[in-house]
Amino acid sequence: MPTYGSRMKELRAQTGKSQEVFGKLFECKQSALNRYENDQTEPPFRILLWYADYFDVSLDYLLCRTNNPQGRLYKYEPAALKHRMANKREWGEFIEACFEEGSPMNAKLKEMLIKMTGGDEA
Predict the structure, then answer these.
(1) Can you tell me the distance from the alpha carbon of 40 to that of 22, in angstroms, rounded to the nearest whole number?
(2) Residue range(s) of every CATH 1.10.260.40 domain in the chain
(3) Which residues have C-beta within 8 Å of that of residue 18, sequence separation ≥ 6?
């Protein structure tokens, strides 16, 4: 099973650069980089971010949460939203209130949509 250290070592090795040369790129001592690559010390967050940016990989990949360098994709669906979406009558009433001419919800919705599109109210 891969570790964050083995991932860091593998990525660095792909560049053909030594630990010393690579460490100088992001202002890290060779001895520290060696400890990170051999899982003796956890790398600081700034180092992990630097690796992620430099190699264009995700933090999920560096932290071995996935074997996909692009990371894991999540579908964000909080339970509260699922519950509210289940009550279609409540949503129907909300939509009706938003589009009812002259209602305060209508004016707020219109204002919000205009702001979102960067337009000025006509």
Answers:
(1) 18
(2) 4-62
(3) 30
Enumerate residues 6+ apart whose C-beta is below 8 A from 58: 52, 66, 68, 69, 70, 71, 72
Asked if 11 and 58 touch (Cβ cutoff 8 Å), the reply is: no
Q: What is the per-residue pLDDT for 75?
A: 64
Task: Read off the pTM.
Answer: 0.58
Backbone CA torsion sign across 24, 28, 29, 31? negative
The two structure tokens encoding residue 48: 């992990």
Decide yes or no: CATH 1.10.10.10 for domain 4-62.
no
**What is residue 80's predicted lDDT score, i.e. its pLDDT?**
65
Token pair 């919800």 is at which residue? 105
